[in-house]
Amino acid sequence: MNEEDKSLSKEEQEAKDKGDRERETKEQAALPYTWKQELGDVDVVVPVPKGTRGRDLNVTIAKKKLAVGLKGKDRIMDGELCKEIKVEDSTWTLEDQEVVHIHLEKLNKQQWWENVLTHHPKIDTTKIQPENSKLSDLDGETRSMVEKMMFDQQQKQMGKPTSDEIKKMEALEKFKTAHPELDFSQAKIS
Q1: I need a surface site. Which of 37, 94, 140, 176 has the fewest CB within 10 A?
Q2: What are 86's strand-pairing partners?
Q3: pLDDT digit string (tens) for 6-27?
Q4: Long-range contacts: 56-60, Cβ < 8 Å, 24+?
Q5: What is the DSSP pairing of strand 41-47 with strand 57-62?
Q6: Domain tally for the chain?
Q7: pLDDT tens per residue, range 120-139
């Protein structure tokens, strides 16, 4: 939530959110494809002229690029993906000679995408409520444990300290401050 949102009343915030959702819905509806995502993958559906065959299509799926088009015609979609994917686990299929289904496996499975292609309108990922992830159904203790595990997993992926390592470092710093008479210069902390 940005600074200006904090000064709004509950009713004003709800009206702003509703307006944002409507704008977002219109922007997404104007795209030449539809898409949905889970934490681990993104599915894109691209309508093509009825009777299209697989050999009529030009589909490019790369680590950071996606393009779909009909041979000899302008591309339906073409651009840089907003995040990297696992190319070897990503696929496309033609269904009923009128729809191209593209399945993209996210490289970072702990992150929501704001858009598929970087030059397309973004969605507000803070408003995403996952359908199959029932984090909200968990009791407080279990939910906080799962959130801690997700945080630690993301920290490890980025090479940063986990929550337990952060707590240990903070406890050590408090101890050092409380006991300035002790010399820690030769200490090996594990």
Answers
A1: 140
A2: 105
A3: 678 888 888 888 888 899 889 9
A4: 57/94, 57/100, 59/92, 59/100, 59/102
A5: unpaired
A6: 2
A7: 999 888 777 665 556 666 66
Domain containing 67 equals: 31-127
User: Distance (Å, rounded) from C-alpha 23 to C-alpha 1?
Assistant: 18
Could you tell me if residue 107 is inside a domain? yes
φ/ψ of 147, rounded to 5, equals -65, -40
Residue 19 lies in a domain: no
Run of H or E including 159: none
Burial 97-118 (b: 16+ CB within 10 A, else e): eebbebebebbeeeebbebbbe
Report the DSSP beta bridge partners of residue 40: none
* Domain match, 101 and 149 both: no
In a domain, 12, yes or no: no
Please indicate, yes or no, whether the overall pTM of this predicted structure exceeds 0.70.
no
Residues 95 and 70 in one domain: yes
> Are both 74 and 155 inside the same structural domain?
no
Residue 52: per-residue pLDDT: 94
The Cα angle at residue 155 between residues 146 and 161, in degrees rounded to 5: 110
CATH number at residue 108: 2.60.40.790
Same domain, 149 and 108: no
- Mean pLDDT, residues 102-121: 93
Q: Which amino acid is at 176?
A: K
CA distance 42 to 172: 43
